[in-house]
Amino acid sequence: MRRFPRQPMLTLASITLANAHVMTHPPVRMTSTPARHFSSERSALKRGRMAATAESRFITGNVGNNVTPYIENLVGRDLHKNPDQPLGIIKAKIENYFNSLDSDMKFDVVDSLDPLVDAQRCFDDLLIPTDHPGRKPSDTYYVTRDGGREVSSAADTLLRTHTSAHQSTLMREGREAFLCTGDVYRRDEIDATHFPVFHQMEGVKLFDPALVGDPTTMTREEWLASPGCELIAADLKKTLEGMCDELFGPVEKRWIDEYFPFTEPSFELEIFYNGDWMEVLGCGVIHSGVLDNVGKPDRRGWAFGLGLERLAMVLFSIPDIRLFWSADKRFTKQFKEGQITTFKPYSKYPPCFKDISFWLPDDFEPNDFFEIGREVCGELVENMSLVDEFTNPKKGKTSHCYRITYRSMDRSLTDEEVNEMQNKLRERATDLGVELR
Ligand code: FA5
Ligand code: MG
After folding, report:
1. Below-50 pLDDT ranges, the chain
2. Cα of 268 from ligand 1 centre, angstroms
């Protein structure tokens, strides 16, 4: 059974990358890289490749556009809307749970919103500052970003990085309680628990002011110390603990104090499952600034965001996140609406390992290299990890060695196709300005 440590993948790469787009603290970088200047030559190269698809909504040729054809192809698959697939099964179970709670409040089910949003909704409405690491093009797929790599603006358009991107729109529509599910996109490392697209469910519930008091008569400190704020946090915790019991049976849980710019206070829920603590969701009492932004300064409530793959991998014993995207009948036929069953692996085909080493340019972003891995190999790349790093003091240059694991989930790979992918990867890596060793 797969384990989910709190910080999965403690490879060298993840020391740099872990949580870069998690809406919490900025990541700790191994080396302090200077401000990134993407040479005009290289971006022209990239643009040329992208401009090839003229009709695309996602590949626009805009200066900041970094959506690749591989990612574009994954948009709109709607895995969460298939009732006979693990993600759809869990989604339905959670929706049923929330709408069977002893309360007059019904949660609207929203699951068809366009993943193409603007930075205003995805970041600014949620008080995420323009210099937050989650807004960097190394972490996020931009459709348009007129300021290029350097300058972030509310007008940028992008593939949503979390379902919180819809909070403000749905609250402005006057909804008091909702569950909003969708595919979210993050440029990230490559391993069994990370795929550039995964699914989140956002939950929001606003409370009757008669119950929690009028926050407009209080200072921020008074609100945070008030019985109303306490009541909302307690309701949030009780409701989410109940959801975990519903899905997993009674399990051991713990609350971790967290930081999100858009909730205050903020928490993360972990459950102890198969010998390990696993982060299931982030949540909190909605920040007053978010409610001010949607014209509801007199209202308060809670919000949470959970990852469906995380839950599904554990509940169905699915060992690799790529499997959710498989159309192989040996996978799809195993699941039925309403039922949580244990996945039976149909075969494990042998992996093939290859290393690639290069000297880094000043502006190197590992995520750019991983992206090329996705583009060249698609789902045939299982893992890309940094296995060696050293700096040559004379040259003043740093070298990275990455180990690439090639493996198909459906068949054996031939030597020729692995070699072809490896050669292409080496060739394409030079687009990033690296010097192969
Ligand atoms: C967020 O995305 C916040 N928007 C959550 C939130 C919503 C907080 C509302 C407060 C109020 P975070 O980046 O931690 O937070 O992701 C939330 C959940 O998504 C995680 O707990 C995890 O279950 C899931 N998740 C995050 N990254 C991945 C990943 N790479 N693969 C699979 N699941 C992931
Ligand atoms: Mg988190």
Report:
1. 1-53
2. 9
